[in-house]
Amino acid sequence: MAGKRKRKGVGTSFCASVAMEKLHTGIAAVPAYQSGLAKLLRSIQEGLRTAPAHTGALVAEDLLHLGLLEALLFLLNSHCEDVLVESLEVIGALAFTSYQVNCKVVLNKDILKLLVGKMVAKHAEVNIAACNTALELAITEDGKTNLQESGVMEPLMSLLSWSAGVMNMRVGYVDKDGLFDSAIDDHSSLISSKDSDTGVCSSEHDDNYSSSDAESHDSEAVEELFLVTLDTVNMLNSSKAECLFEGVSEATLKATLLSLKRIWQNFKLDQYNFKIDISARCGVLAKLIVQLSSEGKIHISNKSYGDAIKKTLFKGMDREAELFFQEYWEHFPLLITRDEHTNEGDIFSLLQNHYCKASASDLLEDLLAQNVTCPAISADELNLSSILKEVEDQLGKPMVYDQDIRLVKSVPSTAFDCSTVAINSSDHGLRELHYFERSSSGTSYSEDHVYAKDCLMAFDAGYSVALRGMQFRSPVIAAIADALALTFGQASVGVNLYLTPCNSQGFALHYDDHCVLALQLSGLKKWKVYASHHKLPQLYCNRGTLDKDFVEGKIPMEFVLEMGDVLYIPRGFPHEAQALNSCQTDNKECSLQLRGNQCLLGGCAQARLPLKTSNVQSKGCILEGLKVSKCADGKNTGCTNTYSLHLTFAVEVELPFTWEGLVHIALHDWRHGDWEHCSNVLSQSTLPDLVEKVCTLLLHIAIRLIGCKHEAFRKACLVAAKPFDCNNYMAALPYHDIFTGREIQEGCQIISSVDSQSCLTPEVFFSSLIELVKKNAQFDDAYKSLQEEIRDHGEHFLGWMGWLRHLPGGMSSYKSTELLFVCTHVLQLGSQQEAILKLKQGFENLKRGFVQGAVFGSASRLFLNLLWQYQTLRQRFVNGMLALHLSS
Description:
The protein is globular, with a radius of gyration of 33 Å. The protein has 33 helices and twelve strands. By secondary structure, the protein is an alpha+beta fold. The chain has three domains: 16-294, Leucine-rich Repeat Variant (Alpha Horseshoe); 308-653, Sandwich (Jelly Rolls); 656-873, no CATH class. Mean pLDDT is 76; it is low at 6-12, 194-215, 416-427, 438-446, 584-639, 674-687, 726-732 and 734-758.
């Protein structure tokens, strides 16, 4: 079986000197003694593998001392297949005896060069032996590194592509585009070049690899070659080196990806009839497909989808974009209606054919067929290899409840016995019931895989189907989400899909920590949105449930969304939505009547409610009630839709890309981020030398504390926003209505000198934030917070600062035990009043220097570079996940 070999038991009496004497005699008798050489090499290999671990290592050392590697260098140029196979087996057996022997073998560049050459020989058995040997050499980090440096990945990927291609042809795949033939030609060219490099005579080899005679190859050999090659690539994939495919040609990578995706598709559709068990390598295959796919780009023009965003959100006009960002962005909800005659090429028209199905069952079957789980990734991670290592156990698996999909409905609190059903409550009359929560303890079957039949049963019972991560499942949605991220200058946009039965409600009243753009794809849905409960909540904050009396005495804004409409809801605004039971004629008239009273952009009304108005009914934008006519018999007969379908595009404003994040970046830039030597600081420095580093840390904490209190810090920083091609758009973007009068009175001199209704440029706005740092950053608060962080989180204290390590000269060891030891040492000085005073004085001096020296231009350049890194990583991960979805 392909893979690393294990020792079989106690070995025989094997003598290294005798074996080497026979080997040299055999080499001298070549070519007449070819078969004898093969047998002798097999005995050496078996002697190494069957010996006990300690004995095997000693024997291997003796063999190396007696010149075994030199003999193998000669034998690897043999034209005899058996000799080549057995020579390779001996190298693998040597490498597997001990770490020391492994290192000696992999340091021999000539051995590795010949090994790489055998991977493209024209014999499957030689290929398999070479890959097995590489697999055993790769059990050490030195082995992985030296193999990669020897150029092993090019022939490995070529072999993987070829073997996968042969397997695909055997299940009826027709190579209409000649992609397989192209891969074979590339493989043949590689064979020819390697033959000339290594001195192997091509005329001695039979069975040229070609697509025309793929059936002539032994199926078991091809399947074994595929598995051992896949295992070898996976072993090398565990290397600490990040550039696994460095040096591999683009043509080889493309051919390999295409072949593996065909293998994956046939495997997922149960179209294989092979003796090998691919399911055992499901995660390995999925991970490799994700990696190869992540090397490319989304093959859709961002410009064309940027135009779709422009048409959808801003009616294609600069003025509408300015109005949106001035009056609504992070301020107030907005309904954006669709004009069927002028909105061709908008988001709705791009998605309409994909998701508008005749029935809910057809839609669910299409959505869930062959879908796989899309695991969440660390928000502050920029290394794709690290991300894939964290989630590799989940890659390629079926969807998981509560991670990928939820089945939920909201029902009156009195509709069921709370003692027997697990529920989530919004404490205002409706409670959420989850389909897979059946116990009073609230146990969620989160490890159960969810299939279409589960969702159909739940949907028929009135549950909404909420499908997460649509940007990982559809290339079109992925490109739209990417264009939206560029529009709002953020790292990424997540997309969820909601399918709700008529007269049903999914989630109860809640508010989000991200801005929402809800696009109605089918049916009608009535939304209720209340005035802001929490101004600009921070991402991943603990939101909890709304107060029991939150809705009492409050009149919500109500919006009815038809197909193609978009509703913008800023973060922090509580909302809920119900699918309407609609008939074509009645509801069209009803909808037109309602929409004339709503807040529209590009429509007949341009109204905006005051930001802090508690009773907004007087503005004429609110509907007190909604009466929707039903069919005469009260059923859905004759109705255009029996369900509501909408997408939500979640614009998550992550900490690095808020204005607070820009202030942190400015501090880091001003201090040059030199944290590299924190681990040695105690041994090389006295207390005064520690003060500046710890004070920098405390000032970051103080800025974070200010951000928790002041809304201005939590706003999205739009210095990278690209609504259109207007180069001067951001320079004129207003930031008024941000600061309260109290904040101005507290000492924001720059703001107080500017008319509150005039435009504040980003530079001026940044200066106002620095003024707030000067006024509100307090040593005592930061010092206390640091103590609490260390007490509660230990080694992982200040995890929210992890993203700063991605800046030039970043704090690479900020989570390390050494830095924790430094901070703990300083904090233990609480009884030493003089030391605390020095620390406080250092904090004030540092703050004063930062306030005077912070530079917007320099900080914004670092900001843009960091944003680009995040966007690139997220795009690569999206590309990889798309490759695993057959529907894409």
